[in-house]
Write a sequence for this structure.
């Protein structure tokens, strides 16, 4: 079960993840137990009922669900436990993975858009930013806000997110989770990217044509493909535009590869769970992929 074909990461990486999650998992467990008891523990640590799944097994089943979307009932049969035990394990471990943040080459972990811009300013990195969307279940009929998930581009119900990476394609952040109807640029502006661009004037970003408004407001920091020339433009003008577009695309393509790396994990190809759980799942997978 610990093979990378099932969990998407190497055994060495798995050991690091388990060691990193051991402290937060134990602290959260003790906090939950204390809340249920209403008082501090009276017996020594280690007394009481034993776990049906130890932490390593909990991490393994969570990674198997994230990587291949294996049904909880199938994993429960493999470990000879009840299905609810596997579901509870995923509910415990997935938020811990999502809360790890995104690792950088310097060892620092990034959790917010402000962290990413501060890291880019300190390291002299040009950010690559692009949006993507994942198909989700259609909300029930007559539910308020039902049309908000309908994507004009995909013509289906989706949730959008924004991927930010560096020049090597290393994911720095997955953010701005919004229903599919909202534009990618609007989502970024709602999360305060305009203020961050003004706060960090040395940070530059490569984006696609959907972010022309940001390029208009911050022309020295945001790069987008050149606009289409007039129909009667001279051939040399058309050729110069194509060359400029190709150069900009070549520097931005790594963010498309970063999105593809995340979407190799089956839950992000089409999400069949609760819509509220998708942002946490995207962040959990994003923290593992780099």
């Amino acid at each position: 079960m610990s093979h990378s074909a099932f969990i998407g990461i190497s055994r060495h990486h798995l050991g690091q993840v388990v060691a990193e999650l051991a402290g937060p998992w134990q602290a959260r467990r003790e906090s939950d137990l204390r809340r249920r008891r209403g008082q501090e523990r009276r017996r020594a640590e280690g007394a009481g009922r034993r776990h049906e799944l130890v932490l390593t097994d909990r991490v393994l089943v969570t990674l198997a669900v994230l990587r291949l979307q294996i049904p909880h009932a199938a994993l429960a049969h493999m470990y000879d436990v009840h299905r609810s035990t596997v579901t509870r394990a995923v509910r415990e471990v997935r938020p811990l993975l999502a809360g790890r943040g995104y690792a950088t080459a310097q060892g620092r972990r990034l959790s917010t858009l402000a962290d990413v811009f501060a890291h880019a300013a300190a390291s002299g990195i040009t950010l690559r930013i692009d949006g993507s969307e994942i198909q989700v279940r259609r909300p029930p009929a007559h539910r308020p806000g039902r049309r908000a998930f309908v994507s004009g581009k995909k013509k289906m119900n989706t949730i959008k997110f924004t991927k930010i990476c560096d020049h090597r394609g290393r994911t720095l952040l997955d953010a701005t989770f919004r229903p599919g109807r909202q534009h990618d640029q609007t989502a970024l502006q709602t999360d305060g990217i305009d203020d961050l661009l003004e706060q960090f004037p040395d940070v530059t970003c490569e984006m696609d044509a959907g972010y022309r408004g940001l390029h208009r407001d911050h022309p020295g920091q945001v790069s987008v493909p050149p606009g289409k020339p007039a129909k009667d433009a001279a051939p040399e003008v058309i050729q110069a535009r194509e060359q400029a577009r190709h150069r900009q695309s070549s520097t931005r393509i790594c963010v498309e590869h970063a999105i593809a790396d995340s979407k190799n994990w089956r839950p992000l190809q089409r999400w069949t769970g609760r819509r509220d759980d998708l942002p946490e799942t995207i962040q959990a997978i994003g923290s593992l992929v780099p």
Summary: The chain has a mean pLDDT of 91.
